Amino acid sequence: MTHTETGHAPMGRRERKKAATRQAIADAALRLFLERGYDDVGIREIADAADVSTTTLFKHFPVKEALVFDEDADHKARLLAAVRERAEGQSIPAALREHALRYRMATATGDPRFADFFHLVNSTPALRDYQQGTWLRHADALAAVIAEESGLPSDDPACAALAHFALESLRAARGHDDPRQVVTRAFDLLEYGWSSLPASG
User: Fold this and answer.
1) In this structure, are residues 67 and 29 in contact, taking their beta carbons and an 8 Å threshold?
2) What CATH class is the domain 13-67?
3) Beta strand residue intervals within the chain, DSSP E
4) Over the stretch 104-135, which tens digit does the pLDDT of each residue have?
5) pTM for this prediction
6) Residues with Cβ < 8 Å from 169, sequence gap 6 or more?
């Protein structure tokens, strides 16, 4: 949702112009989607609002759903860093749980922009599916980092399973009254195994 730079090297003039254009398009799209609903806003309207051509828009955002989720690379970098830069002695599932909980807290800050954004996503099936697909596209990269950090083969199925289920935990929490509890319980399973989980009653 937020369109901020995250500590990258200084950009040249051309890169700054491209970034500004991308930002303008994303901001115009989100404003229109929040005002009228995702399905009722067309690509041409967004391009006009951002003062660009539809061709330029599609150079930055190949599909309409991507207009809502324009920080995918940053999300991926933070996800992989959660494993690589975890505290000494911290397990990989615990590091991923901490990352998932930080993500949940960031979306529950009370900022009305977050509330409006997540209402838009949760009320639009195409956006819900795209968001989950975006997360799961990181599964291979996450599995590779888990294997690397664990000293296991890159194709180890346990690493792939952990990566997949860690990313799925956020979908399990969606719409739940207590998403933090859902994420915590899901990662308890990943950390300790099924037999260790207390019955929920």
Assistant:
1) yes
2) mainly alpha
3) none
4) 655 554 556 667 887 888 889 998 888 777 77
5) 0.67
6) 100, 182, 183, 186, 187
Reading the block at residue 72, the tokens are: 């995918």
- The secondary structure of 52-78 as a DSSP string is --HHHHHHH-SSGGGGT---HHHHHHH
Which residues does 19 contact at the CB level (< 8 Å), separation at least 6? 5, 11
Each domain of the chain, given as residue ranges in start order, spans 13-67, 72-196
Q: Among residues 118, 104, 93, 108, which one has the least CA distance to residue 186?
A: 93
Residue type, 99: H
- Indicate the CATH number for domain 72-196: 1.10.357.10
Radius of gyration of the chain (CA): 19
Residue type (1 letter), 159: C
Residue 188: other Cβ atoms inside 10 A: 16
Whether 101 has a pLDDT exceeding 70, the answer reads yes
